[in-house]
Amino acid sequence: MPATRVNGVRLYWELTGERGDPLILVHGSWGDHHNWDPVVPALSRSFRVLTYDRRGHSQSQRPFGQGNVRDDVADLAALIEHLGCVPAHIVGNSFGGSIVLRLAGERPELFRTLIVHEPPLFRALENVSTAQMALSAAQERIASVVELLRAGKVTEGARAFVETVAFGPGAWEAPFRDPRDLRLQCSHMARRGLRSGRTGARSTSLAWLCRSCVADVGRPESALLSSCG
Predict the structure, then answer these.
(1) What are the Cα distances from residue 180, in Å, to 15, 48, 72, 163, 186?
(2) What does residue 129 show for φ and ψ, rounded to 5 degrees?
(3) 3-39, pLDDT tens digit by residue?
(4) Which of 11, 37, 149, 152 is most exposed, with minimal Cβ within 10 Å?
(5) What is the extent of the structural domain holding 102?
(6) What is the rounded distance in angstroms from the CA atom of residue 93 to the CA atom of residue 139?
(7) Is 90 helix (H, G, I), strand (E, B) or coil?
(8) How far is 76 from 50, CA to CA, in rounded Å?
(9) pLDDT tens digits, 84-128
(10) Are 101 and 201 in contact (CB under 8 A)?
(11) Is the pTM of this model over 0.90?
(12) Are 47 and 16 spatial neighbours (Cβ–Cβ below 8 Å)?
């Protein structure tokens, strides 16, 4: 089983493909490297694709304590350097996108390009007047999930996350294409979801990143493409 110890934690990883630039895929906080399984076969025809389980997830080590985004950023940097995947195209989904953005602000030399999908950057909306109603509703839903998890109601918290934050009403009972049980996976990862959604990264920290970047907040008309080098 491929695994590497970085920053005192053993991380499970898989490298697929034998040609092309390295492509790193970073999953969100309620999943693992299998989230990328539907796209890895096609991507590996053109790239060397690295997927891994973040600390506290699936086959990677679960250190004591809550953990934070700084740990994830340091782990990602150490892992891709250890495996010689520098510079790389780096892609992040959900909280994985927040990790990738923060790493780009701190270590731009690790990047060829950057792509993030739906990073939970709520702080970026704090001063946007037209977004306050949606921001307040999202924060209330997330707070409800956290309250359930802190009360030890893991399954209830996982269900609330799936149906009110991630996918929508009815998703908890809906059949998914992934052969693994969504409910079991989210319940298993639920305590990891207690971490704060604040990344500490601000858009200005990326202003000097001279790389091609794509940020998508989930709607085609809201996609941002920035190419500066």
Answers:
(1) 21, 25, 25, 18, 11
(2) -60, -40
(3) 999 999 999 999 999 999 999 999 998 789 999 999 9
(4) 152
(5) 1-121+199-229
(6) 19
(7) strand
(8) 11
(9) 999 999 999 999 999 999 999 999 999 999 999 988 888 788 888
(10) yes
(11) no
(12) no
**Do 116 and 183 lie in a common domain?**
no
The DSSP element (H or E) to which 50 belongs, if any, is strand 48-52
* Bridge partners of residue 13, in order along the sequence: 52
In one-letter notation, the amino acid at residue 194 is L
Coil, strand or helix at 191: helix
**181 shares a domain with 112:** no
Q: Would you report the helix, strand and coil content of the chain in percent, each value rounded to 5?
A: 40, 20, 40
* Rounded alpha-carbon distances, angstroms, from residue 221 to 89, 217, 224: 24, 9, 9
If one counts the domains in the chain, the total is 2
The answer to whether residues 108 and 36 belong to one domain is: yes
Q: Order across the sheet with 9-16: list the strands.
A: 3-6, 9-16, 48-52, 22-26, 88-93, 111-117, 212-216, 224-227
